[in-house]
Amino acid sequence: MPDRISRKLAGFSLVLTLLLMLIAAPAQADQARAQELQRAAMDDDFLNTDFNPALLKLKEALSLCKRRCSKRYTATLYRDAGVIYLTGFNDAERADKAFRKALSLDAGLSLDRAFATPEVKEAFAAAGGKGGALLHDPVFEAEWKNPIPIYVELMNRRPGLNVTLSYRLEDQEDWKRMRMRRRGRGLGATIPCGAVKSLGSIEYYILVKANGRKLANSGDRRNPHIITLVRKSQEDPIAFPGRDPPDSCSGKKRRGVAKRRKKRRRKKRRRDDEYEDDEYEDDEYEDDEYEDDEDRPKKKKKKKRKPQKQKQIWVGLGFQFDLAWLGGNDVCTAKSQTEFGIYCYKEDGSQYGGDPVEGEGDKITPGFVPSTMRILLSGDYIVARPLSLGGRVGFAFNGGPTPGGGSPFFPIHAEVRAGFWPLRDGAFPVDGFGFQMFLGGGMAQVDGSKGVQVKNRSDSAIEPNAVLRLDANKRMGRNFIGPGLGAWYGIKGAGGISFEVKSMILLPDFGFTASPTIGYAFGF
What we know:
The longest helix is centred in the first third of the chain and has 45 residues, at 2-46. A hairpin with a 1-residue loop joins strand 18 (496-509) and strand 19 (511-523). It contains seven helices and 19 strands. 33% of the residues are buried. The strands form three sheets. The chain has an eight-stranded antiparallel beta barrel with strand order 11-13-14-15-16-17-18-19. It is elongated, with a radius of gyration of 38 Å. The protein is an alpha+beta fold.
């Protein structure tokens, strides 16, 4: 009996969970669409003074959010609508209604710093906005395993203020608190690595006190801001104004930041000149923004990479395997063997001289076939860091038989080449990976072969009506030209390993190969 009850409860729980998921999924989709409309309205239309399109987008976002979006988020839509009414249309009455509606949904709502003009601040405060004393853009989403900067600006900056950030994980009861310290024109604190170790959410709020009395807040214990931690965010990395995002908890630099670093530093220097250092009393803020040492991001000490001395000359040994492109119909006819350079041989090695039935067998499906192999001695000289010139000489084997009246297989390989190495370390890095694109040319011959079946004609002078299994061999070359790609791994103090794939376009007996090569080289 208890087992039956347990099974029923489990089934009921599963059904309830599925229903909740079905209800929540459209709500999440509507809020995501509303956020896109809000960004387009404020970041594009409003900043370009296109106030009518901006207001229409916000109204569309509000219609999507009826009973679906969170109250805290819906409040930001009404707040932005109030900004547009006041700034774009000079309609103080409608702006006041929008601000009051926003504050009824979120009493701790604060203004967006980008749009907080003196007129907007005054109207927002008149509507009852306590959060108007501070300007804070709430963080809704952040990538896990990365510290989260939280930034505020105060309308009335004066000594003696106590500004704190309180945060906790979704499954915790106790709040952790840290003081916010100066960051340019405002104050900032960073939620540390100890709070972003796993996916989930973080709650936070900001409190401003003066002489022990609460002056302003953004969020509170009952209605905190909520940050959803995700694996990969579509938003830009979170950073303090004029600063790069903090390094990840593993010590790695945030992607896409290094290119903008120099420009941001110049802006920061110009901006810092505008603010006095005595706006806040230094003793009101701790030098360390982390309460506990265990919360501090542990940065790995990076060893300075010593520049490797480039070696100019590289000598090596390699093995090349040719894959020849081969195909055709009626390849063993007398015409094919005399005009197209495809020679057919019997199992005993003698050349086929029969008269096959055309269109019956005697066909090679186009494709790459294994052919010749080569042992190559290489030599390269680094002309400039990304450029190299070199050559290859060696011996080819696995060539085909000598056709009647023809020349034997030419086993000599001689090649010159020029290479371009686009990566930072240039040609043949002593330690680590390298990559090259090259163009080569010289002397080489390739024999590609494929088995075919032929049937002699009934009037053939040799073995009439016989069905034979032959080996069709095409001789290509002796000259070639072709591009290639190569990868290199330098082993510090022990040379390096190379892997290449090149194509050879062979002339005057036309042919084409794809030729992978593996080798080892050392420099001096």
